[in-house]
Amino acid sequence: MRRVIAAALSAVVFAAGLSGCSILSSPVELLKAPAAGSEQEAILRAVSELLPNGAKLTVPLKHGEKIGAISQADLDGDGVKEAIALYKQETNQFQLGLLILKKQPDGRWTRMAEQVELGSEFDYMDILDLTGTGTRDILVGWSGGKQITKSLSVYRLQQGQLKLLDSQAYTELAVDQLDADAIPDIVLFRADRTKDLPTVSLYRLQDNRLIAVDSMPLDGLANILVQVQAGKASDTVRGVFVDAQVGAHSGSTMLLLLDNGRLRLASLTGDQSSPILLNAYTATSRDVDGDGIIEIDLLKPAPGTDHLSLAAIPWIHEWSKWNPGKGLTPVQENYYDYGSGFGIQLPATWKGKYTLRKLGDEKEGSLELAYWTDATRLTPELMTIAWVPKDKWEDRQMAWSKQKRQVVALGERADKKFAALLPPTPDLPETIKAGYKEMREETKNPASWFQFLPAKQTPGKETDK
Prior knowledge:
Blueprint (H helix, E strand, L loop, with lengths): L1 H11 L14 H4 L7 H13 L4 E4 L3 E2 L6 E4 L8 E8 L5 E9 L5 E10 L2 E8 L8 E7 L6 E9 L2 E10 L1 E5 L8 E6 L8 E8 L2 E9 L6 E9 L5 E9 L3 E10 L2 E5 L10 E3 L16 E6 L13 E9 L3 E11 L4 E5 L7 E7 L4 E7 L9 E9 L3 H10 L3 E8 L2 E7 L7 H12 L8 E3 L9 E3 L1
């Protein structure tokens, strides 16, 4: 593995954009599944003393639930948990280390084993029973940077030594229990630029080797893998969600399931002959409603905006759950303005009855929510979200007052203030008056719709020794 990453690093000559892992603000973040009180302090103190000079504790970009910069697990089966620490050398930005500490009968923590590899960050780590025998192995994804193929290594602690069982190259990975056998499934994706299609393979640890038990090419609608994650696809089914870039800006989403030991694509369209969901832009799946099930994001142009360019269209994010055999079932709609840093969640009762109009830019502008029916071209305003530079706030308030708008402050961020503007009730035809009134009633508490989007973070943080 060292030769693979070393050769790749030489090829890109320390390419820009090789980031480290994330800065941890407190000792609590360093240690996962710790003993309480003095035991935690003893582990932190011992790790600090045994780290090489110039080393920084680091957290992997992706990791299991109980994995931190320092984790604890019984690796040798003696009933006593070892401490496992991950570090990065500050003096050599391409050296990573895994340090295992053993607790002695007198309470001291001493160095037991160590593994040092070339790389810029830990892409992944977990400690799992891969065979169902009770033996716990360490899985580490070593990364040399975004443009470099990663390596997944499986280590086992034997007679006080850390033994490498096997390694496999990968571009992205997902490790999860995808079926009912209680043994983790290792799903590795490989994107080879010399070939048209990336491949995905299912691995199991057999006879201390990572064996590919199934493999399949991904569709050509997955040029660049943007996000790969495993999780609940329904109340009873777990799967791997693959969000990818297609061409210059379009996107696709796939759902991989494990069926009788074989990988297969679930249909996200209701048609098994074309199971892949396509979007005008790249979108990523996530659990948007907090129920533990991952929703899929479908971008829809706001009604009546088809004549606009792709960049000018206000896109509605329709979040849907996978419904086995039927495709997708919508559960929620949102609008996100990443440039201005806010989002809104639309009421479920508004579905199919509103449109959006955006004016201005990320420095100052507005998003108008308007009533919509396919039967009429009338689009009376329901509410507007406005963002204004702080030094122009008073002038804008005076203008809104003259327009007899109700102004509801939504907060401020950086140099901008945000507000919801509620217009006077318009004169409307009887055919739409009742529908408009019902929707207008739901704008009385606009703050409940509104949220600031989190600032975009650089992947990974580190903390000094």
